[in-house]
Specification:
single chain; alpha+beta; five-stranded mixed sheet; 24 helices; 8% strand
Length: 610
């Protein structure tokens, strides 16, 4: 009987439950996507890229659990507010609170189970599609990655089961302690906000000071070291809360006294925001911080990818070194575009590699010279030729040159003039130093050449020794590509969760708003004005944390100056544009769902035949 009544209630309010299920499905899908990476130990251990990123995954997983907890609480608040009047009506008709409470818990768990099951299926599909898209974009190959991972499935099920049980208990306590008459009149309750001007002005000024301290701590991370992070976290959180709380009330009060408020439904829109300003202050603070974290993760991830070429070029003046090229390798070399090839003869005697110094006089070996800024940050790299005499003296310090032999040698290379070189009776060889203008254009051919060299000289594969920019490019792109993947993944997950939390916070008040919009419709208010009022109200609630979040990111990127050649803002407009577009999609979705709930259905006028 209980299950039949619960399912009947869900069926009767299917439109409202679809809104609830949509958000919860996305929540569980996003959590599974991240849990798949965070809990897959074999995947992390088998990929060098992600071995050092385990703390990042654990931190992200904990943060997602906290966000998910807040999200589920808002979702259940939406569910409870939607059903309060019905529960009160059941009690007035003679149902016991215990039975009604059991019904509420059962409905909560049923909705949670359905949402989690659908979310897992969606999460498995999104994990496979999104990961393949990112891997192909970043050009990294990962092992033991499977969109379906049982431990991640189990983690998601257990987490959401626990969260829904906790939410059901809280809802049950709220239901038991609330009188029946208050349940019936719950939707008519309004929080009256009193604006105390002087106190709000002081709160706003103090909030600006706190945020300024946080931004300064981030900019001076070189001085404060790790201490700057907790300082910034505490000051920016408190500062954001005070700014939102004070500015929203003061601005709304000022606007309500202006002539603009008397036009159309502007005063009604301002009152709508004012009614819920205290609760919105908390969620807007959280949303702005999560917005900054999400945008920052994507921005930093993209910046790491931009560093690959410059860091690789700082290791060598040449792209790749080919020892004793075979006919197959020679054919691949011919396929390289914009190539320059310099060849040096070699002879091997025991652990010694011997070179013809006249060839180095004719084609000087080049090394990378680093130009540094006044602050000591690496700035530019320049390829400069080295004389034979200098190379002889400093050859032991030129690691890139020492590795030209294709194997690990105990002693430094030696140089002889042409006549003396020809007289040496030893195993002959050669090394071709190849330089290309664009690694990206020639990457496929370079990978084939590098693979053939590692196969011919296993010592290079075992020790990681390899001359040229390309081996360094592969190693750095593996590490930084992994960081970029983590940044994109975290950014997308945080964006979806924060926007969903804000969406449900807005939708949780729809039961009260539905009555107000019905009244406005009955007194003859045009539907276009109602749509305009809703668009403005929700836009303000989305825009405020978005603007503050972008400001937080712009100051927060100061932390990474030393990592990104003193220019952490290079091409920052692209991730911001992409992020804002995705954020706007959530705004339009929220607006559409809100209108679907609060606005009365359009009445179809039937034509009457005379």
């Amino acid at each position: 009987m209980l299950s039949r009544l619960a399912l009947s209630n869900i069926k009767n309010r299917l439109r409202d439950y679809i809104v609830l299920l949509t958000g919860l499905v996305m929540s569980s899908a996003i959590f599974y996507m991240f849990a798949n990476l965070a809990t897959n130990e074999s995947f992390i251990k088998s990929n060098t890229t992600f071995r050092f990123a385990v703390p990042v995954f654990y931190f992200g997983e904990v943060l997602l659990v906290i966000i998910t907890l807040v999200y589920v609480m808002y979702a259940n608040s939406f569910l409870l507010n939607m059903r309060l009047h019905d529960y009160g009506l059941f009690m007035m008709l003679g149902a016991k609170k215990r039975r009604v409470g059991t019904l509420m818990v059962f409905e909560t768990l049923v909705v949670g189970a359905i949402a989690t099951a659908i979310g897992l299926l969606l999460g498995i599909g999104l994990t496979g599609g999104l990961s393949k898209l990112l891997f192909s974009h970043l050009g990294i190959a990962l092992h033991h990655f499977n969109p379906f991972y049982f431990k991640a499935v189990l983690t998601t099920i257990v987490l959401y089961l626990v969260l829904f049980i906790i939410a059901a208990i809280f809802n049950l306590q709220s239901l038991i302690r609330t009188p029946v008459l208050k349940l019936l009149k719950q939707n008519d309750t309004v929080n009256k906000i009193k604006a105390h001007g002087i106190g709000l002005y002081f709160a706003g000024i103090f909030g600006v000071i706190l945020i300024g301290i946080g931004y300064y701590a981030l900019a001076q991370i070189a001085t404060f070291q790790l201490t700057s992070i907790p300082i910034a976290l505490v000051t920016i959180v408190l500062g954001s809360y005070l700014i939102f709380h004070s500015s929203m009330i003061l601005i709304i009060e000022r606007l309500k006294k202006s002539n603009w408020a008397r036009r159309k439904l502007n005063n009604f829109t301002l009152s709508q925001i004012m009614f819920r300003v205290q609760d919105y202050t908390k969620i807007l603070t959280i949303t702005s911080l999560l917005f900054a974290l999400a945008l920052g993760a994507i921005t930093v991830g993209s910046a790491f990818n931009r560093q690959i070429d410059s860091l690789a070029k700082s290791n060598s003046s040449y792209t790749i070194a080919i020892n004793n090229p075979t006919a197959k390798e020679q054919g691949l070399i011919e396929q390289l575009s914009d190539r320059t090839v310099v060849k040096y003869d070699q002879k091997f005697s025991g652990n010694h590699v011997i070179y013809n110094e006249d060839q180095f006089a004719q084609h000087p070996y080049k090394i990378v010279e680093t130009t540094q800024s006044k602050s000591g940050t690496m700035n530019t790299y320049k390829n400069v030729p080295v004389s034979v005499s200098k190379l002889k003296k400093e050859v032991s310090s030129q690691f890139d040159f020492v590795s030209l032999g294709g194997s690990v040698l105990d002693t430094a290379p030696k140089f002889y003039a042409t006549n003396d070189f020809n007289k040496i009776n030893a195993k002959k060889g050669s090394v071709s130093l190849i330089t290309v203008k664009s690694i990206a254009e020639n990457r496929t051919v370079l990978e084939k050449l590098n693979h053939l060299q590692l196969k011919a000289y296993p010592t290079m594969d075992e020790t990681g020794i390899g001359a040229g920019t390309f081996p360094a490019f592969l190693m750095i792109s593996g590490i930084y590509g992994g960081l970029e993947f983590i940044g994109y993944f975290l950014g997308i997950a945080f964006l979806a969760m924060l926007a969903s939390c804000l969406m449900f916070k807005i939708l949780s008040g729809t039961q009260q708003d539905r009555i107000r919009y019905n009244l406005l419709t009955k007194v003859g208010t045009r539907r276009s004005l109602l749509n305009q009022s809703i668009n403005r109200e929700i836009f303000v609630l989305f825009a405020l944390p978005g603007i503050l979040g972008i400001i937080d990111v712009l100051f927060g990127l100061q932390m990474f100056k030393s990592f990104f050649n003193n220019n952490p803002y290079q091409n920052i407009q692209y991730p911001i544009i992409i992020f804002v577009v995705l954020y706007l999609l959530y705004y339009f979705l929220t607006t559409w769902l809100y209108k679907l709930i609060v606005l009365p259905k359009k009445e179809i006028k039937k034509k009457v035949n005379p």
